[in-house]
Amino acid sequence: MNTLLIFLGKLVMFISRLIGKGSGSTWPGHIALSVNPFFISEITQKNPHVKIILIAGTNGKTTTSKMIATVLEKSGKSIIQNKSGANLLNGVASSFIESSTVFGKINKDVAVFEIDENTLPLVLEQTKPTIVIALNLFRDQLDRYGELDSIAKKWKKVFSMLNHNTTVVLNADDPQIAFLGDKLHAKTVYFGLDEKGETASHLQHASDSIYCPNCHNRLEYKKIYYSHIGIWNCPFCKLKRPNIESIKTIYPLPGMYNKYNTLASVLAIKQLDIPENIVQDAIATVTPAFGRQEKITINGKTVQIFLAKNPASFNQTMQTIADLGAKYVAFVLNDRIPDGRDVSWIWDIDLEKFLPQFTSVFISGDRVYDMELRVWYAGRDTNVYAFASLADAIWNALENLPEKETLYILPTYSAMLEVRKIITGKKIL
Amino acid sequence: MKQMLTIGWLYPELMSIYGDRGNVICLQKRCELRGIETKVLLVGLQTTEKELSSCDILLMGGAQDSQQTIVAKDLEKKKKTLSSLIESGVPGIYICGAFQFLGKYYKEADGTIVNGLGIFDLYTENPGNNFPRLIGNMAFDASGILGTAAPMIGFENHGGRTYLGLGVKPLGKVIKGFGNNGEDGTEGSVYKNSIGTYSHGPILPKNPPIADFLIQEALKKKYKQEFVLSKLDDTIAEKAKQTILDRILQ
C-alpha cells in the first residue's frame, strides 16, 4: 500500500514541478496520510537508521533547521529536510516520500524537520526522534493556535511519554519551555544566554509567560533579554531557570534571537558526536534562511527582508535593524490564514520606541490602514507612506532609497512570500 | 482649567491578550490632542482600593484561562470598589473575558459554574468542544447607544456564549459575525456608562466614536458639566474600517 502511495506522491511532485505549481511540498503527503494515517509511523519504523531531529517553537524554527542542516551536510551526513513552512504532518510525509525509494527505503542519515506548534504532539506520536528541540513559546495567531498555556500543556504531556532514547533540547530562559524538562524520562539538556553587561531593566509589554508555570505566581527576573526570556526564578515555589550547558560558539547572524537559534543548534549537534571544529567551521558559513534577514540586491539597491510575524519577533527584529542603523523601513501586514486573521497583535509591539530613528516609513499589505493607524497612534505622521498595492509600495520605497542605504522590509508570513515574489520575480513554495 | 482623567487599566499583565494596550494608547492620544491630561493607573494585584477609586475611565481585556484564575481571586477583593465605580456611572470598557467576568456566572462545558461579579445582568455558557469557537471579523450597529449610524467593527474570538438579562441593553445589533452568542443577534452590553463587548481588534482605535463616548462621559461625571469634544481627523481609522466592511459585507 505505501509503495503505491509513495509512487503516487512522487508522481504528484513531478507533475507540480513540471507545471510550475508550488504545491509539491505538501500534496503528496496529504494524499498519503488521507489513505494511510499511519504512513509516517510505518515509514520511520522501516528506516530506523534515519535519525530524526524535530525543531519546534514559535520563532526561529526555520533558521535553526537551516543551521543544523548546514552543519550536518558539512560533516558529511546526508539529510532530509522539510521545506520551510511545510511544517505540518503533510509536509513531513512529503519529505519522506521525496527521499525514499518506491519501496519505502530511505538512504539518508538524518531527517531535520521544523514542526508547527500544534503538530508537534502528532509527530511525536508517530516517530521516535533522536532529538527534540523546543525553542520558545510566544503569543502568535491566537485565532489559529489558541492560547499559549494550552500548547504548553499539550507539549508537556507528549514530552513526558518520550523515553531515554530521545534527547530533549530546551531553552532554559523561557520559563514555559524550561518547565517542559521537569520529570522527563528522556535525556534533557538546556541552552541559555549568559550575556554580560546591560539588559532590559523591565519587562517589555509583549511578555507572555511571566507567571510561574508550576504555581502561577509572578516570576522574578535577574536579567531580561527580551519579552519573557531571561534569567528567572519563582519566589514562591523556588522553581528557577535550570543550569545551562556551557557552549562556546560563534554567532553567524545578527540579533539576540539568532544567538538562541545558534545555541540550540550547537547543543543539538553536540548530541551527535560531530567534532567541534567541524561544527564551528560550518556554523560560521550559515547564511539567513529565505525571508529571514535575507539580503537581495535589485537595480543596484539593497533590500533586506526580516520576517516579523508576532509581537516578540517584531520587537526583536526592530531592535536588530535599529542596531544595524536602519533608516528606511517598510511594514507589510497581511491577515491571511498563515499570518493569523486577527491583527490586534500590532498594538502589542513597541513601535513608539523605534519609529523616531527611521527617516521614512513605508506601509502596505491587506491591512495597510490598520498598520498606518498603529503608526499614527505611535505619534508618527510625517514621512509615512501607505500604499494599498504592495508593488507600488516597494517600487516607491526603492526609488526614494539613497544609494548605499538598505530598505528593511518587515512582512508577515504571506506578505514575505509576496515581497519576495515581487522583488525576485518568482514564486517560492 | 485643564482637565485631567485617570485611566485605570485593569490587569495589564494578566488580562491583555488581544492588543488591549491599543485601547489605552487610543484614549491617551485622543485626550492629548484635545488638551486633556491623562494618567494611566496600572491596576494589578498590589493596587489598593483607594487607588482604584481614583479612576475616571476603566479598561479591562481578555486573558488565558490560568491567568483568569489569578484575576478572579484578586477581583473578589476589589469587587466592592469596582462595583460602586460602575454603579456610580464611571465609564469603562470590558472586553471578552472581562465582559464575561462582570456577568452573573460562567458555566463551563462540564457544568461547573464559575461565579462572576454579578454587576452586569448576563451569564455565559460554554457549550463544549463540539461547538466551534466564534472567531472572525465582525461588524455591528451601535447607533442606539452612540448616535452614529456608521457600523462598528472588531475581531471576536470566544468559546463562551453570553445571554443578556433585562437589566442591560445590548451595545449593538450584529451586522456580520456572531456577537454575544451567535443566535440572538446582539453584541455586547451597556449598563450605566459601562460597555461590555466581544469585539477586540483593539476596539477603541478602530471605532473612535466608542473612545470618544468614554472620554465624554468621564469628563461629564468628573467635572459635572456638559463637554463637546473637538473633532479629530479619523481618516486612517475610517479607511481601516472600510477595508474590513468591504470584505465582510459583500
Strand order of the largest sheet of chain B: 2-1-3-4-14-13
Number of domains of chain A: 2
CATH superfamily of the largest domain in chain A: Mur-like, catalytic domain
The helix content of chain B is: 25-40%
For the largest beta-sheet of chain A, the strand count, sense and barrel status come to: 6 strands, parallel
Strand segment count of chain B: 14
CATH topology assignment of the largest domain in chain A: UDP-N-acetylmuramoyl-L-alanine:D-glutamate ligase
Please state roughly what percent of the residues of chain A sit in beta strands, choosing from under 5%, 5-15%, 15-25%, 25-35%, 35-45% or over 45%: 15-25%
Count helical runs of chain A: 16
Helical stretch tally of chain B: 8
Oligomeric grouping of the chains: heterodimer
Provide the helix percentage of chain A: 25-40%
What's the β-strand tally of chain A? 14
User: Which geometry of chain A do the CA atoms define?
Assistant: globular
CA distance, first residue to last residue of chain A: 28 Å
CATH superfamily of chain B: Class I glutamine amidotransferase (GATase) domain
Structural class per helix/strand content of chain A?
alpha/beta
Report the span from N to C terminus of chain B.
Answer: 49 Å
Gross CATH architecture of chain B: 3-Layer(aba) Sandwich
Largest interface: A-B, 33 and 34 residues
Question: What does this protein look like?
Answer:
The complex is a heterodimer of chains A (429) and B (250). Chain A has 429 residues and is α/β, with parallel strands linked by helices. Chain A contains 16 helices and 14 strands. In chain A, strands 2-3-1-4-5-6 form a 6-stranded parallel β-sheet, sandwiched between helices. A 6-stranded mixed β-sheet of chain A has the order 9-10-14-11-12-13, sandwiched between helices. The radius of gyration of chain A is 22 Å and the shape is globular. The two termini of chain A are 28 Å apart. The mean pLDDT of chain A is 92. With 250 residues, chain B is an alpha/beta fold. A 6-stranded mixed β-sheet of chain B has the order 2-1-3-4-14-13. A 4-stranded mixed β-sheet of chain B has the order 6-5-7-10, with no helix packed on it. In chain B, a hairpin with a 5-residue loop joins strand 5 and strand 6. In chain B, 49% of the residues are buried. Chains A and B meet through helix 8 and helix 14 of A and helix 1, helix 3, strand 8 and helix 8 of B.
